[in-house]
């Protein structure tokens, strides 16, 4: 996991998101963006060997929530709205990448846009859009003391 603070004191974060039987990919970070990757396994597929739409929503909310947690100064975040549009399928064995970008980071409400793309294994740079999500987070509550250990792990593996 990588977290970086930009000169304007906005936060950057990166996460590798995986499902059972899927190996994590190295995280990457760009300005205020959280990136997570997932290899489509039977665990996250519909019976037709297609990535389940609920898994896409899970990845979208998870990447946005991690970004919101860091951007809020490690405050508790809650998803209050999630809207996902599925455009194309991802099949069993394919790798997808979720990129969460902050639209607005306020003291109380944060809005994140998440795009999930299929990674072309031959180039790793050509990516086909699979779904888009808009995630709205509430971020005005102090995190519980139990989260301090999680915060420290994020900071430990961060590039600040």
From TrEMBL:
Pfam families: 4HBT (PF03061). Signal peptide: none annotated. One of its GO terms (biological process) is phylloquinone biosynthetic process. Residues 1-23 have a biased composition (Low complexity). CDD domains: PaaI_thioesterase. Residues 1-30 are annotated as: Disordered. This is Thioesterase domain-containing protein. It comes from Ananas comosus var. bracteatus (red pineapple). The lineage of its organism: Eukaryota, Viridiplantae, Streptophyta, Embryophyta, Tracheophyta.
């Amino acid at each position: 996991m990588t977290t970086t603070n930009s000169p304007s004191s906005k936060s950057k974060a990166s996460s590798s998101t995986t499902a059972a039987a899927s190996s994590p990919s190295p995280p990457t970070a760009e300005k205020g963006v959280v990136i997570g990757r997932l290899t489509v396994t039977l665990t996250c597929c519909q019976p037709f060997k297609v990535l389940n739409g609920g898994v896409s929503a899970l990845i979208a909310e998870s990447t946005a929530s991690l970004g919101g947690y860091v951007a809020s100064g490690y405050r508790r975040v809650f998803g209050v709205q999630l809207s996902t549009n599925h455009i194309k399928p991802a099949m069993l064995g394919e790798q997808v990448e979720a990129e969460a970008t902050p639209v607005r980071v306020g003291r109380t409400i944060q809005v994140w846009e998440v795009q999930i793309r299929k990674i072309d294994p031959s180039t790793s740079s050509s990516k086909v859009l699979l779904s888009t999500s808009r995630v709205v987070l509430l971020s005005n509550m102090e995190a519980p003391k139990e989260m301090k250990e999680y915060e420290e792990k994020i900071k430990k593996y961060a590039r600040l």
